[in-house]
Design brief:
With about 300 residues, the protein is an alpha/beta fold. Strands 3, 4, 5, 6, 9, 10 and 11 form a seven-stranded mixed β-sheet that branches. A two-stranded antiparallel sheet has the order 1-2. It has a two-stranded parallel ribbon with strand order 7-8. It is globular and about 70 Å long.
Length: about 300
């Protein structure tokens, strides 16, 4: 029997069902009809040799072991498809098209919008797709074109340039200190409301690796969303870790233990080496290196 060709449309429907757990939800998300999505799944199963990709469960459609094994490949196809569209978006000449940037939650929300606004004033034809996540985007798989990372890149085939070290310190809102008192020693923190993580994250592991004795049970406010942690500090809930640059913009935030609790995280701008010759990618890359270098210097008081 002749093997059926593998269709990206069928794989896209496969990912839709995997993400939503139902044919109807996948159809709504993709703009297709439910029978069309069901037909795509059937045709994909036939193209792959006839093995079932989903089984019915009390919670909807659950992926089989075969589906779980195929997911990484389907995600790679999805990323490659999106990368092709971004590349083609500027293929007609001129400085235009899309650039997908991955950055940590804090950098993505608090820092990059201003930097990209300044860039956009000179190059309005470039569109930005921002992924604000503390997960490391796979640049080799083209999950993003450019990444701002707080750890040294470990993957090969990447263009990487260090922008400097961003300083962090412990801060509390003046209203919190008026309410609870100011801790005079690090040991006194045990009597205060500390803001920190809920689960172990890559950022926390990086802080632990430089000597920060961080444990979940220490915290009165637990969240793995760094933006929520910053919001809790600004709201006066308790004491937490904040980038010094961000704290300087809020005079109500008071730095604690400036001599004992100062530490920094490396900052790197990275992209896939295949994008080195793409002019708009290089322009954005160089802009981020320049801006993030200045940002890192400002965080330590160097100008």
């Amino acid at each position: 029997m002749e093997q059926l060709p593998l269709s990206w449309d069928h794989c896209r429907s496969f990912l839709g069902v995997w993400r939503t757990g139902s044919l109807s939800a996948a159809a709504r998300a993709s703009g297709l009809t439910q029978p069309t999505v069901a037909r795509h799944i059937t045709l994909l199963e036939e193209a792959l040799g006839g093995g079932a990709l989903f089984i019915r469960s009390p919670h909807g459609l659950s992926p089989t072991d075969l589906a779980d094994a195929l997911i990484p490949h389907a995600l790679a196809m999805e990323a490659a498809s999106a990368a092709m569209l971004r590349t083609a978006s500027g293929a007609e000449g001129g400085i235009s098209g899309a650039v997908r940037i991955s950055a940590s939650q804090i950098i993505g929300v608090e820092v990059l919008p201003g930097m990209l606004t300044r860039f956009s004033a000179d190059y309005p034809g470039i569109d930005f797709e921002l992924v604000a996540t503390n997960e490391t985007s796979d640049l080799l798989r083209r999950d993003a074109d450019i990444a701002v990372r707080m750890v040294r890149p470990a993957q090969g085939a990447l263009v990487a340039q260090k922008a400097g070290d961003i300083q962090l310190a412990m801060y509390a809102h003046k209203d919190y200190l008026a309410r609870r008192g100011r801790p005079e020693t690090v040991d006194a923190l045990q009597d205060h409301a500390i803001i920190g993580f809920d689960q172990q994250t890559a950022g926390i592991q990086a802080l632990q690796s430089i000597g920060m004795p961080l444990k979940r049970e220490m915290f009165a406010f637990r969240t793995d969303n760094d933006v929520a942690q910053l919001a809790a500090i600004r709201a006066g809930f308790g004491i937490g870790i904040c980038q010094t640059n961000l704290a300087r913009g809020n005079p109500d935030l008071i730095r604690l233990f400036p001599e004992d609790m100062s530490f920094s995280l490396e900052t790197w701008i990275t992209m896939h080496e295949d994008l080195r010759g793409n002019r708009r990618m290089r322009l954005v890359f160089d802009h981020l290196v320049s801006e993030m270098t200045a940002y890192a210097k400002a965080s330590t008081g160097l100008h």
